[in-house]
Amino acid sequence: MVPPWTPAAPLDPVPPPPQPPNEPPDMVPDGLPLGELPRVPVAPPAASPPGLQPPPIAPEKRFGGVRTSLGNFARSGDGRDLRRGLGHYVRGGYGGSNTATQRFGSTAQTAGSLSHTLYSTASGAADAMLDTVALAGRSTEEIATAIIEAVRPVDGTQDAEAERAAMHDAMSQLLTEFPEADLLNLSDVEREFVIEKFTAIDVARRFELDVGKHLLERAPTATVAMSRLKQMRAYIAETVAASFRKLRDQGRILSPGRVARVVQAALRDTFEVFEGYEE
After folding, report:
1. In angstroms, rounded to a whole number, what is the distance separating the alpha carbons of residues 160 and 182?
2. Least confident span in 11-20, 212-221, 252-261
3. pLDDT digits over 161-175, tens only?
4. Buried residues in 222-242 as b, exposed as e (16+ CB within 10 A)
5. Whole-angstrom Cα distance, residue 185 to residue 123?
6. Is the separation of the CB atoms in 6 and 32 below 8 Å?
7. pLDDT tens digit sequence for 54-112
């Protein structure tokens, strides 16, 4: 169910700062960064090392249950059908929350690279990935494009395209919520807003790419279809936001050097919630 090219669990591009005495330790395993940072090439799958199993092969018609529930949701707008569809998506489509979290590993990695890019640029760090002098006086759209190119260059994959679009939408939402925000000098609150929105939008976009076509085909009209998509995106966004709030209550915040791990934990919690809907 997880393609062999799926990246390992994420590691943030900058080392985490000293942990406050009362903050619980981060228990999510490390992995590889993305963006302009050094990448470890992923070799084609070979024989699995002793003790390790190869990624499971996706079963036929694994999204069958999702499509049935989404068809019902497209016609009725009943939130229970949407929740069932999300449950089938995680459990039947990906074999459970653990595998789904692994499949979305690049989302966490990209979130870590995005945070590092925004933080290092705002703080004027020596390893900043953007040239603020060259971008001085440029339009907001040009700056957003430069950020996206630095974090997630085009590589021809569906994941990259979804993440690039999610970053763009997240920054657009930031500028709606904080009209005075400077993308080259974001505050901690603004940067965290972008990371949370990016995560939620990317999950929704992947869901749409996998099964959204069925929802559009089963809706009675184009107007209803757009309304159902909006309802679905809002529901996913609120679930992701609730997962981030839960982690904050536990002391796990989106501090520099720890973003990818926290995002991965938020994704896992989100998928566990979705998985429970199938029961």
Report:
1. 25
2. 11-20
3. 999 999 999 999 999
4. eeebeebbeebbeebbebbbe
5. 8
6. no
7. 445 445 466 778 889 999 999 999 999 999 999 999 998 889 999 999 999 999 999 99
Q: What is the 3-state secondary structure (H, E, C) of the chain?
A: CCCCCCCCCCCCCCCCCCCCCCCCCCCCCCCCCCCCCCCCCCCCCCCCCCCCCCCCCCCCCCCHHHHHHHHHHHHHCCHHHHHHHHHHHHHHHHCCHHHHHHHCHHHHHHHHHHHHHHHHHHHCCCCCCCCHHHHCCCCHHHHHHHHHHHHCCCCCCHHHHHHHHHHHHHHHHHHHHCCCCCCCCCCHHHHHHHHHHHHHHHHHHHHHHHHHHHHHHHCCCHHHHHHHHHHHHHHHHHHHHHHHHHHHHCCCCCCCCCHHHHHHHHHHHHHHHHHHCCC
Phi-psi region of 137 (alpha: psi -120 to 50; beta: other; left: phi over 0): left
How would you class 46 by CB atoms within 10 Å of its CB: exposed for 0-12, middle for 13-18, buried for 19 or more? exposed
pLDDT exceeds cutoff 90 at 146:
yes
- pLDDT, residue 56, reads 52
* Measured distance CA(165)–CA(170) in Å, rounded: 9
Q: Return the number of other C-beta atoms located less than 10 Å from residue 4's C-beta.
A: 11
Tell me the C-alpha distance between 5 and 188, whole Å.
33
Please tell me the distance from the alpha carbon of residue 125 to that of residue 262, in angstroms, as a whole number. Answer: 23
Are 207 and 108 in contact, with CB atoms under 8 Å apart? no
